[in-house]
Every structure is written in structure tokens, then in C-alpha cells.
Design goal:
The chain is of the alpha/beta class. The protein is built from 20 helices and 31 strands. The protein binds 5'-O-[(S)-butoxy(hydroxy)phosphoryl]adenosine. The site of 5'-O-[(S)-butoxy(hydroxy)phosphoryl]adenosine has 22 residues, from α11, β25 and β26.
Length: about 675
């Protein structure tokens, strides 16, 4: 009886809610969003999304996306086997969903606002213009022989042409692999080779914070040994003259001019690949997470609309670089699938001064603003006057993602930036999840959240916690390893070229669930807080790095016998990186010189953002008798907490700990 009551209540909730969530009115000028999508029955809807995922997601997919052919099967997933597939038999095109269906209704609506690096300069691109650019690039790609399934490496500044390049790939079924323009030539090369990219799209130069970045030159170095690369397309950002290889290099804008502004969108399967994006894991080799079409675009759009309470006419700004998943889902695909106006931020938060974001908020009348905790912490140190100087009355929602947002930073964001009026959404998700998974949801009426807490699972998401003994932790007031029990449409399908690694990393550690690599606690009220990575991944200054990636670069130096890298809590960066290096016995070089060389090697192989903040040359490392490095101890030393080292007597060489503590204190002081 109770069961029946709940079911019928949920059915009612779902049918009234999906009308709101689905925005059926495709052909009306209001499309695709209703004026307000508050759903006071969020809890019932959430239950329904877990109890009846096929109906829940099927209904949303049917009504929120434009299909060439509707799907026959909503989902075919087996978490035990790491098999995730959605909307089978369906055919659609993501660029059609992100551009054409909006052009048909509101061609002149602004799709993109490009906030250029140069202060006080922005450019608007309408949906019609975005479609034209996209089609011209798609036709250029076709002319150069790029076909469905080919991989396209993208190494470009944040710009409308970057967005159009991604959408052009989507239009013809090519798979883009955007590489953050701060990665070095070596890092770019390994990503190009891993995916056998046929072409690279880049720019003459980039500019960030007034500094020039030599993108084309870096690509030239990267592709020297990449036989797979047939062409390099070069957008003009600064107009500087750069080295040219005739026959291989193509001026992007000139090639586009020759092309028609119409290009039919390829009809693709729901599960055809859309893009791959590299991220760091526990080994030295970055992994290319692969996302597919329908499930990804549905999830990116739904989370963008509901988490940020986005309404037509709002100017949305996610200031992340497009080279990260946040740039893919929250700058490009989520907003565009909703017909939104999205801001492309090319600069850095402190250029020309720490008021940059807030001046931009005033000038562009931004309503929802999304950034990373590291930027918030940096700006709060610069003083409130940079915020107060500008009018921020348009702001309603302030989001952050990437690392835990400490209470002080949360309060500053809420009270100073938001003037106490705005909803702060601390959103938890990953490259692997494609979209936001744990988050306060303003549109559900949950406007109050606890500082530092991403709070509640999004619709369809069921977080579960396990302890070290692999036991499921039930009830509240528990902390453990965060896993996700139910498949969601936006989850990555595989690691490009290495499905075994995908299964080993995400689906085999806790059979039947997806393992996130994070620790979390569920407090007495059932709210979630992320406690940090439980694997060898570091989140520093908004970047994700594997300790093994750094260690393998240092191990290549002939003078280094062994290196161990740990992340440790840092006031500004979230986590900072500490490198402990053991030299070979015969090495007599000056320590400072070696550290300088190691820094240069890391800059060369990965990028300057990955250079550790502290280095120690040490005669040994704390290891167990079986040879495992005790990173916990290295972390405590880095954090200046020798009193918390615990019992070290079972180590293979206990005295090494005091040697390391002394060395650290000599070099970096006690606090
Ligand atoms: C890792 C994923 C999704 C865009 C940026 C990061 C950490 C993410 C939070 C948060 C605490 C967070 C986790 C996660 N993380 N959001 N709100 N609170 N930690 O994507 O580079 O794939 O990194 O970032 O450790 O696993 P990513």
C-alpha cells in the first residue's frame, strides 16, 4: 500500500516535472527553457530517478534532444563489467543539438561572448555566426580528408574558433582531443601519438595575462616525430609570423573563407565517440577518457541548466580553460545545448589586476559565475576593494569545482563576491563523470548549503561509501571511499586504446560500482563533503597531476636514483607538490644545479604548472620492509607536522625519518 502510494506520487511528480525538465516546447520562442524551473518536489523526483532510471532518463532524452531517429533502448549498462551505454539505436548529431535547433528559432541570440585577454575587450558571436564558422571548419576538414572517427588534436587559445573547431568535429563525427595550451611539446606529442591524431589545430600564438605563448612553435616541435599528423591548421591570434611548413601547414581562416557556410550534420549513433580528454591517473601515462554523443550531451545540458538555474537571456560565465572537462561541459557543450549565452574567458584572474573577474561581471552583466577554489583563495588575499569596486548585482549563482573549497574561501565568495545574496554551488565531479554529480541545487529550493560541502547527489546519482576493508558504509556520519552505484548517461565509456586500464582503475576496485578515486564523508544530515584523493593523484592550483608522471620525469635524469612526489595541504593551492629526490652515490653535482635541471625537465615534459613547489635532496626515503614508500610520512613532513608522524619503528630504516625532518626544517623552516 505504502509502496503503491509512493509510486503513484512519484509518477505524478515525474510527469509534472519532466514537463519542466524536458522543455517540450521546441518550436516556441521560449525553447528550450521554461521561465522558471524550480522543482519543489526534488526529493521525490530524485527517488524516482533512482528507482526508475529507464523512464526518467528515457523521457528526458526524448524531449530534451533532437533526434534523427529515436532510440529503442534507454540503457544497457552493467556496472560489474564496466559497461555503460545509453540510448541505443538512437541517431543524432551533437552540433545540430548545440547550434542548428537554436538557429532555427533565435538565430541572432548571442551564443558566445569572447572575453579576450586584452582587458575591456569582448566580442559577441551569435548562434547564426557560430553555425557558419562551424560549417566552414567542418567543410575544411572534409576537404583535407578528415572523416568520421578520425582524431583531431586541438591546441588553441580559448576563442570562438576553438569552440567552432570542437563543434566542427562533432558535425562530421571526428573525435576531438583538446590539449590545454599550457602543456609542453613533449606532453602534446605523447597525446597526439596515443590517439594517432590525423591533424592538429592550433594558433600562431596565444596570449594569457599579457604574455605571449608560442603555440605554433610548440606544435612544430611536438609533431616532428608524429607520422600520423598530415596537416596542421593555424588560426591567427596575434598575427605574428611563425615558421611554416608548406604542404603541411594550413591557414585556418583562409581555408575557411573558401568554404560554404552550410555543412550537413552527419547522422551519428548515440554511442559514437564525441571526444577524448586526457587526465592524470596513478601511473606515469595520462589516460584519454572517451565520451560519446547522446548521453554526454544530455547530462551536460541538464546539469548546466539545473545546477546554475539557467534561464534564457542570462549571461553564463565559466572561466575555466576549455582544455579541461569543465571547459568542455560547462563552457561549451552544456550551455550551447541549452541555447545559452556562454562566456569564453581567455585571460587569468589577476590580469591586469585582481579585479578582472568582477569588472567583467559588471561589463557583461554575468548572472552565473563558475570558477575554481584556487582562484577564489588567490583573490581573497588581494583584498575586498577589488570586488567592491564593481557592480555585481546581476550575479545570482556562484559555482566552484576542482578541489575542496575551505570554509574561509566559501564565506568570502558568498559574503564578499555575492554580497550574501547569491547561492554558492560547490560542485563535485570529474573528467570521468562528464558532468556535475554532487551539488547543491538552487532550482530545487535547496538554497542553503554548508560551507565546504557539495551537499547532495544530482538526479540519478547514487553515491556510496566503502571502508578500507571494502565494506559498504551504511547510514550517516561515516567517511570512506566515494563510489557511484548507478550508471549515469554522461559517464566516460572507456580509456582510449586501453579498456583494461579503464576497468582496473574504475570498476574492479569495488565490484558493481564506479570508483571515483576520492574520499568523502557523509555527515549526520546525509550531506557529502569531499576529503580529497585517496590515490596518487594531486589536485594543485586547479590542475590534476599524477605523482607517477612527475616521478618518471625525474627518474630519467641519470643522476637520480629514486624520486617520490607527494601532495600536501597548502593554503593557496589546495595541494602543493613536494619532491623528494635520492641521488646516485657517485653524484657530486651541486644540489641547487640538480634541482634547477629537474625543474627544467618537468617544464619540458609536462609544463611549467607541474613544477613542484618544494624539493629535497635526501639520502633515503621512509619505506616499509617490503619496499613501499610511506607517502603518508612524506606528507606529514611537508606539512610541518612531525608530531603527527606516528609509529615509524616498523620502517626498514627508521632513522631516515628524523634526517628528513631536519633537512626540511633547515631548508623551509618550521612553519
Ligand atoms: C577531481 C577531478 C570537474 C572539473 C574539474 C576537475 C576534485 C572536483 C571537487 C569539489 C572537492 C573536488 C576531486 C576529483 N574535485 N570537484 N567540489 N570538492 N574536490 O576535474 O581534473 O577530472 O579532477 O577534482 O578530487 O576527483 P578533474
Amino acid at each position: 500500500m505504502v509502496h503503491r502510494l509512493i509510486t503513484s506520487c512519484c509518477t505524478r511528480v515525474l510527469s509534472s516535472q519532466t514537463r519542466v525538465l524536458c522543455s517540450r516546447s521546441f518550436s516556441s520562442p521560449l525553447y528550450p527553457l521554461q521561465p522558471k524551473h524550480v522543482d519543489p518536489n526534488h526529493d521525490a523526483l530524485y527517488e524516482e530517478s533512482l528507482n526508475n532510471p529507464e523512464r526518467f532518463w528515457g523521457d528526458l532524452a526524448k524531449h530534451r534532444l533532437r533526434w534523427s531517429k529515436e532510440f529503442d533502448t534507454v540503457m544497457d549498462c552493467d556496472m560489474h563489467k564496466g559497461k555503460i551505454s545509453w540510448f541505443l539505436g538512437g541517431k543524432l548529431n551533437v552540433s545540430d543539438n548545440c547550434i542548428d535547433r537554436h538557429v532555427e528559432v533565435t538565430p541572432d541570440r548571442t551564443a558566445l561572448i569572447w572575453e579576450k585577454d586584452e582587458p575591456n575587450q569582448h566580442q559577441r558571436v551569435s548562434y547564426r555566426e557560430l553555425k557558419e564558422m562551424t560549417c566552414q571548419i567542418a567543410n575544411t576538414f572534409k576537404q583535407y580528408g578528415i572523416v568520421k572517427g578520425d582524431r583531431v588534436a586541438v591546441y588553441m587559445p580559448v576563442s570562438p574558433l576553438l569552440v567552432a573547431t570542437m563543434l566542427a568535429c562533432a558535425r562530421i563525427g571526428a573525435v576531438h582531443s583538446v590539449v590545454f595550451a599550457g602543456f609542453s611539446a613533449e606532453a602534446l606529442k605523447s597525446r597526439i601519438l596515443d590517439a594517432s591524431c590525423k591533424v592538429v589545430v592550433t594558433a600562431d600564438q596565444g596570449v594569457r595575462g599579457g604574455k605571449v605563448i608560442e603555440l605554433k612553435r610548440t606544435v612544430d616541435t611536438a609533431v616532428v616525430d608524429c607520422d600520423c599528423v598530415e596537416n596542421v591548421f593555424v588560426m591567427s591570434r596575434t598575427g605574428a609570423s611563425v615558421p611554416w611548413k608548406d604542404g603541411r601547414d594550413v591557414k585556418l581562416e583562409e581555408a575557411m573563407e573558401q568554404q560554404s557556410t552550410e555543412c550537413p550534420a552527419e547522422v551519428l549513433d548515440s554511442e559514437d565517440p564525441l571526444f577524448m580528454l586526457y587526465t592524470s591517473g596513478s601511473t606515469g601515462k595520462p589516460k584519454g577518457l572517451l565520451h560519446t554523443q547522446a548521453g554526454y550531451i544530455l547530462y551536460a545540458g541538464l546539469t548546466h541548466q539545473l545546477v546554475f538555474d539557467y534561464h534564457h537571456g542570462d549571461v553564463f560565465a565559466c572561466v575555466s580553460d576549455i582544455g579541461w572537462i569543465n571547459g568542455h561541459s560547462s563552457v561549451v557543450y552544456g550551455p550551447l545545448s541549452n541555447g545559452a549565452t556562454t562566456t569564453l574567458f581567455e585571460s587569468v584572474p589577476t590580469y591586469p589586476d585582481p579585479g578582472r573577474y568582477w569588472e567583467m561581471v559588471e561589463r557583461l552583466k554575468i548572472k552565473q559565475f563558475y570558477t575554481a577554489p584556487t582562484a577564489i583563495r588567490l583573490l581573497l588575499k588581494c583584498g575586498d576593494h577589488y570586488v567592491h569596486k564593481y557592480n555585481r548585482d546581476t550575479l545570482t549563482t556562484l559555482g566552484c569545482v576542482g578541489e575542496p573549497l575551505n570554509t574561509g574561501a566559501w564565506e568570502w565568495y558568498h559574503n564578499v563576491v555575492g554580497g550574501g545574496r547569491c547561492t554558492v554551488v560547490d560542485t563535485w565531479w570529474q573528467t570521468e563523470t562528464g558532468g556535475i554529480m554532487i551539488t547543491p541545487r538552487p532550482s530545487s529550493g535547496h538554497t542553503r548549503s554548508k560551507p565546504g560541502f557539495p551537499m547532495t547527489p544530482f538526479l540519478g546519482v547514487e553515491p556510496v561509501l566503502y571502508n578500507d576493508q571494502n565494506e559498504l558504509l551504511e547510514g550517516n556520519n561515516v567517511s570512506g571511499r566515494l563510489c557511484i552505484k548507478k550508471p549515469t548517461p554522461g559517464m566516460a565509456r572507456t580509456i582510449y586504446g586501453d579498456h583494461e586500464r579503464f576497468l582496473d582503475t574504475y570498476y574492479r576496485p569495488y565490484p558493481g560500482v564506479y570508483f571515483t578515486g576520492d574520499g568523502a564523508l557523509r555527515d549526520k544530515d546525509g550531506h557529502y563533503k569531499i576529503t580529497g584523493r585517496v590515490d596518487d593523484v594531486i589536485n594543485t592550483k586547479g590542475h590534476r597531476l599524477g605523482t607517477a608522471e612527475l616521478e618518471s620525469v625525474m627518474d630519467e635524469d641519470p643522476r637520480v636514483a629514486e624520486a617520490a612526489v607527494v601532495g600536501y595541504g597548502h593554503e593557496d593551492y589546495g595541494e602543493a607538490i613536494y619532491a623528494y629526490v635520492i641521488l646516485k652515490d657517485e653524484v657530486r653535482d651541486n644540489e641547487e644545479l640538480i634541482i634547477k635541471d629537474l625543474k627544467a625537465a618537468i617544464t619540458k615534459h609536462i609544463g611549467s604548472f607541474a613544477v613542484p613547489h618544494c624539493f629535497m635532496i635526501t639520502p633515503g626515503l621512509p619505506k616499509t620492509r617490503s619496499g613501499k614508500i610511506m607517502r603518508r610520512i612524506l606528507r606529514k613532513v611537508a606539512e610541518n607536522k612531525p608530531e603527527e608522524l606516528g609509529d615509524v619503528s616498523t620502517l626498514a630504516d627508521p632513522p631516515i625519518v628524523s634526517t628528513i625532518v631536519e633537512k626540511h626544517q633547515q631548508k623551509y623552516g618550521t612553519k
